Amino acid sequence: MISMKDIALECGVSVATVSKALNGQQDIGEETRQKIAETAERLGYTANSAARALKTNKTFNLGVLFLDPMHGGLAHEFFSTVLDAIRSEAESNGYDITFINRGIGNRETSYLQHCRYRGVDGVIIASADFADPQIIELVNSEIPVVTIDHIFNGNISIISDNTGGMETLTDYIISKGHKKIAFIHGEKTSVTVNRLSGFYRSCEKHGIKIPDEYVREGVFHDPKTCYSITKELLGLKDRPTCIVFPDDYSCIGGINAVWESGLRIPDDISAAGYDGIPLSRIISPELTTWVQNTTELGRRSAARLIEQIQKPKSVILDREIVRGHIQEGASVKDISQLG
Amino acid sequence: MISMKDIALECGVSVATVSKALNGQQDIGEETRQKIAETAERLGYTANSAARALKTNKTFNLGVLFLDPMHGGLAHEFFSTVLDAIRSEAESNGYDITFINRGIGNRETSYLQHCRYRGVDGVIIASADFADPQIIELVNSEIPVVTIDHIFNGNISIISDNTGGMETLTDYIISKGHKKIAFIHGEKTSVTVNRLSGFYRSCEKHGIKIPDEYVREGVFHDPKTCYSITKELLGLKDRPTCIVFPDDYSCIGGINAVWESGLRIPDDISAAGYDGIPLSRIISPELTTWVQNTTELGRRSAARLIEQIQKPKSVILDREIVRGHIQEGASVKDISQLG
DNA sequence: GTTATGTCCTTAATCGTTTAAGCTGCAGGG
DNA sequence: CCCTGCAGCTTAAACGATTAAGGACATAAC
After folding, report:
1. Given an 8 Å threshold on Cβ–Cβ distance, is B96 in contact with A94?
2. Do the Cβ atoms of B75 and A77 come within 8 Å?
3. pLDDT, tens digit, 9 for 90 and up, residues B245-283
4. What range defines the domain where residue B154 resides?
C-alpha cells in the first residue's frame, strides 16, 4: 500500500509536508502542493483511516443501533428506508456507518463497549428496547446520540409525529362518515401511546365515543395477529365500519380475514394502515394510510448527529418532529353520503 | 479513554505484557495475567480497533456492496434478509460490516479506494452492476471478494440455484396440469438468464412448447410493469393458464391486473412468484413460489469470506450453490383433474 | 561449578498519520 | 547593514497497539 512516506520520498519532501498539502493546510507552497497532489494521484495513494483515527480520535463512522422489538428488522420497509436515508446522508458527509451489537470478537460486551472499540463519532438509535440498561448506559455516555421515535431528556431526538399523524388519519376516516372505528394498536411503546392519544383526541373532537371492545392490542408488523383480532372484531354484535391497523404490513392479515368472512373492502368494511410503505400503494384497493416521512426521519437524524459531532457547542434543539402526510386510498369508503 | 498504558501503570508491568496477557499469549505468568485481566475490567478498558488495525493490518471489518440494479434496495425483502444473514454471521465471528460506496469525505473515488481507505479485510458484493469497470477493478484487486449470484472466475461465488429453482417451480406448475405458461422475467442479468434456462428446460422435458408471445421482459421488483404486461397477456387470443412473475413483489401488480379484469386467482388463471419472501405467505391466496434460501446465501457468503481471509491458502472451492425449496400455494390451481 | 533450559518479563521498533514547534532564507523596513 | 516578519518547509512526538528480540532469574543437567 502506498503511504505518505512514498509520496514524500518521491517528491523529496517530508511526510509532514505531504500530510499538510493533502489536507489543504495553508503553509504549503502552491508548487509543492501541486506536485504532491499529482504524485499521490499517480502512485494511487489512499489515506489510511485507521492511522488517521488513531491520531485524531475521529473515525468518520456513525454507529447505528437497529434492534428489533418491532419484528421484521431490516425487512421492515419502514426501517429499511430510514436506514437507507441515514446511510445516504451519512455518505454525503463522508461518514460510513457501523451496526452496533453487543459482541466484539467472541466476547460478549455492551453496546457502549462496541462503540468505543470502533471509535464511532456518534450513534443513531433507530430501534431498540429503550428500557434496556445497556441502552441507557449508551445514551448517558460521552458519545453523541440521536434517538429516533423516542425521547431521552438532554439528547437529540428525531420523532415522527405519531400523535398528529394518527389524529389526522382518524379525522379523515371520520370525515368519510365513519363513527364505529376499531383500533388495533401495536405493543405498548411510546409510539403506540402517542398514536392512541391521537386517535382518541380526534374521536373526542368529533364527539365520537369508542367502545372499549373496539380497541385491541395487536403486534407490529404481524399479519397473523391482526388476522385473528380482525376476525374477532367482525364477530361483534355491533361491528365496526372501519378498522385501523398497527401498520400497513400487519393490515394485510386483517384484509385476509375480511375476505375470508365473505366481506369486501371497502364495500362492507373499511381498513386503514399506518406507515405508508410502498406496499400500501401496490395492493388493491390502495390503502388509506398515514405516510411517515421515513426519508426525512433518517436524513435528519444523521444530519443532526453530524452537526452535533462537528460543532458540539451549537445550541441543541433537542427534539425535532417530522411530519408525514395522509394517503387517501380506496380502502376507506365514503359512507357519509348514505346519511 | 483507558488504554493499555493505564493498565500497565496500575499493575507495574510493561505495556507489552498487558497486550500479551489480554491476547492470551503463552509467555505470561498466570498470576500476572489474572491481575491484568482484573485491572482491565475494573478500569473499564476497551481495545482501540484503530490502533490494532494500524499495527496488524486487520480491521475485522467486512465491506458490503449493495447497489441496486434490482430496485428497492434495502427495502427489497430478498436483499434485506441476505444482508441480515451476512451481518449476523459476521458478528458472530467478530466482524463488523461497512457499506461500500464511491465517496470518501466529499471526494468521489472508487469502490476499491473506499475499501482500502477503511481497510476492510474482504468484501461481499451482494448486488451491483457486475459489468461496471469499478466492480471489475475491485474483484481483481488484492482484497478478498465473494460475490453473490454472479460468477467471476477465480473468485468465490455463492449463488442461488436459479436454474434448478425455476426448473423445479415449472415442473410443479406443469404437474398441476398447466401447459400454457407465460413467463415474465426481469432484466437480462445472469440471474434472469439462468431462470429462463431452467424454465425452458422444464418445458422441453415435458414436451411443452412455449410461444414467444408468452415470454416477456419485465422489471424486477416492479409491480407496475408486471401489471401492464399481465394485462397484455390476458388480452391474448390464446390466454395462458398460468403466469410466472419475476418475483413475489412484482407479482402483486400482476394479481391486481387479474382482479381488475374481473378474473380470479387461481380459479381463472394461476400465478407464481419467485423469492419466497414473507409477503408471499401473507397474501391471499398464498403464493406458489420458489423460496430462495436467503439466510443461507448471506450466511455462507460471510462464512466463506471470513474463511478466505483467515486462511488464504485453503483450497478454494470457488463456487457454492445454495438451493431453496418450493412453496406450494393456492395461487396455482390443479387443473390436471379437468383433463 | 558451569552450562543449558525455560519462564516471564522488558525493550524498542513499528504501523501511517497529524500537529505543535522550530528552523531557514528571503524580502522589506528602518 | 541589521532586524523583523513571513512563507514554507522540517523535526519530532504522539496516538494505542503488536511483536521480534533480548534480558534476568531460577531450575535442572552434567
Report:
1. no
2. yes
3. 999 999 999 999 999 999 999 999 999 999 999 999 999
4. 61-160+295-323
